[in-house]
Design goal:
The structure is a single chain. The protein is an alpha+beta fold. It is built from twelve helices and 16 strands. It has three domains: about 130 residues, Periplasmic binding protein-like II (D-Maltodextrin-Binding Protein, domain 2, 3-Layer(aba) Sandwich), CATH 3.40.190; about 100 residues, Periplasmic binding protein-like II (D-Maltodextrin-Binding Protein, domain 2, 3-Layer(aba) Sandwich), CATH 3.40.190; about 80 residues, Alpha-Beta Plaits. It has a seven-stranded mixed β-sheet, sandwiched between helices.
């Protein structure tokens, strides 16, 4: 058990796959570059943050180790955490959405089942199976979540088949009748002649930051300048900056009575621009001009080009934002401190 607040902070990361790559990119952007000497090495350090000790594990093991207190923090799928650790107050979700790894856990049935379009249709279907002496079989990697979901919808007559293999093959091979599995685009389901049903989404999942409640409570006592707060603040900044650019627009004053800077500001505002600030500048030619800065969704910048040029803009620069902090944005650290204070024990 990790007890001393000044002990190294153990951070568990997925050892491979999309969850691994996304975590490494997120931490690097936040200023926490992971130094790993070899892909076969299961421990690493973070450049400039010697207190952090990184270990690489399977996502399932990360959820379990965070619950048992062998790791302070870990990155895993929300689906994995919900399956293995959500019922215990020992572990908490620190940040439920790290901005990547989005998918959903869903019920999928054979395409040929034209009379089954809603999850409630399974109530009658499973009852019919039982009455005819047949077992209704459900393949899944998530037995706890599946039981909870079926119980919620009044589905009780079924047999769970827990498997870690390619579940999409199970109905066609006669291993099961339906599956409960993860999907993002639905393409794999369709390729295997399966389809989702209405109301059949068990859980919306994404890459999440989870942790051991008791250990995090100790770290939180270090306050807003402590290692935990600085890491969470950095992640907040990266998430807020996601797909946004810092825009600088410089232009000439119009010869008439119009206010081109004000019009340019309205153009940026109409394109979801925020933190818009304008002021006078002296151009390179010595003429008086104006300058505007704003935070803008990157996808909106191209649509601003021509309207801004029409207002006399001479230069438009969009720089990818690395970290963004808005005064009214929620702090993950502050929210965590509040939640930890409400946990029993």
């Amino acid at each position: 058990m990790i007890d001393t607040p000044r002990d190294p902070i153990r951070l568990a990361l997925p050892s491979k796959g999309q969850l691994h790559e996304g975590a490494m990119d997120l931490l690097k952007t936040a200023g926490y570059k992971v130094r790993r000497l070899s892909d076969r090495q299961y421990e690493a350090s973070i450049v400039g943050h010697s207190r952090f000790h990184v270990v690489f594990m399977r996502p399932t093991d990360i959820a379990i180790q965070a619950q048992e207190g062998r790791c302070h923090l870990g990155v895993t799928g929300l689906d994995v955490f919900a399956e293995h650790a959500a019922d215990s107050n020992a572990a908490v979700v620190v940040a439920p959405d790290l901005g990547y790894g989005g998918c959903r856990l869903t019920v999928a049935v054979p395409e040929s089942w034209i009379d089954v379009s809603h999850v409630l249709d399974l109530v009658d279907l499973t009852t019919e199976f039982k009455a005819s002496g047949r077992g209704f079989r459900v393949s899944t990697k998530y037995p706890a979540l599946t039981r909870r979901f079926f119980r919620k919808h009044g589905i009780f007559h079924y047999q769970l088949i827990h498997s870690e293999g390619a579940l999409e093959l199970h109905p066609s091979l006669g291993i099961s009748d339906v599956i409960v599995d993860l999907t993002s685009s639905g393409t794999t389901l369709k390729d295997n002649r399966l389809r989702e049903i209405e109301g059949g989404t068990v859980l919306e999942s994404t890459a999440s930051l989870v942790g051991h409640a008791r250990s995090l409570a100790q770290l939180a006592r270090e306050g807003g300048t402590g290692s935990l707060a600085r890491l969470l603040d950095a992640i907040d900044g990266v998430r807020a900056a996601d797909q946004r650019v810092l825009v600088e627009v410089v232009g000439r004053n119009a010869g008439d009575a119009s206010d081109p800077a004000a019009h340019a500001a309205e153009i940026l505002k109409a394109r979801a621009g925020r933190q818009i600030a304008a002021g006078p500048v002296e151009l390179e030619t010595g003429e008086p001009g104006w300058r505007i800065t704003a935070i803008l969704p990157a996808a909106e910048l191209a649509g601003c080009r021509r309207p801004l040029l029409e207002q006399g803009a001479s230069r438009i620069v969009g720089t990818p934002a690395r970290l963004v902090y808005d005064a009214d944005a929620e702090s993950t650290f502050d929210a965590l401190v509040e939640r930890l204070g409400k946990l029993p024990g």
